[in-house]
Write a sequence for this structure.
């Protein structure tokens, strides 16, 4: 499995959620609404989820093992950092 595209939409408001991301797998399958969250230990991703009838949130789509989660998280966070740097450069140029 290869991640063939990552699309980062930065969140404009203040808070722990920094971006919402979509990834494409093998140019054939898309997963939307992966969140980039600022936690106590740094950035991490949260997979798409839905609130269940018991009030708990359950992932709709998620990796089966920790190695795959880590690979997806690494690629997403690299692209997020790149988008954040480009955004900061654009803001500086506008001043």
């Amino acid at each position: 499995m290869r991640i063939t595209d990552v699309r980062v939409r930065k969140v404009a408001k203040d808070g722990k959620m920094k971006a919402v991301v979509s990834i494409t797998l093998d140019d054939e399958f898309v997963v939307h609404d992966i969140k980039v969250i600022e936690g106590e230990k740094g950035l991490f991703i949260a997979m798409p989820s839905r609130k269940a009838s018991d009030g708990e949130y359950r992932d709709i789509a998620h990796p089966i093992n920790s190695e795959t989660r880590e690979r997806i998280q690494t690629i997403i966070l690299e692209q997020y950092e790149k988008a954040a740097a480009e955004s900061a450069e654009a803001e500086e140029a506008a001043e």
In short: The longest strand covers residues 29-39.
